[in-house]
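To make the argument concrete, we let one protein speak, a sequence paired with a row of structure tokens, as a model reads it:
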Amino acid sequence: MAKGISAEIIAAKIFEIRGKKVMLDSDLARLYGVGTKVLNQAVKRNKNRFPQDFMFSLTREEIMRMSQIVTSLKFSKNINVFTEQGVAMLSSVLNSERAVQVNIQIVRAFVRLRYAISVDKQFAMKLRELESKLRIHDDDICDIFSTLEELMGIPSARKKIKGFTQK
């Protein structure tokens, strides 16, 4: 069953909080097939395996903001979130075949997400470069038309104002 969990389902459960990509304890518990309380108890018993960059608790304000996206959070007093490293560590704390299989799928989803973000950034950078080149080409084309109009003795439809061309 764990192998059948799609990357899209997992990716939809990855949020950005405090500048980190994380998953909620309740979502992870559902994926692992255990209760949220069971998951958090296992983490408490192995607290030394979960430093702040692997797992942290949300503040009340963060819970309220998140509850706009995940409505079941409104009534939760304490919510733990896990980074990719924290999720990887969970498989050593939850000793089951399902936990191992789910972790493999989750790590793959995090990798895909990182790749997609990197491709998006590269695409945005290329788009900005292209936009800049087009702006320069537009100015150059306007200059060519102005020069041709002058050479042909045609009054220009564009007025030059202190280095700017206006239509």
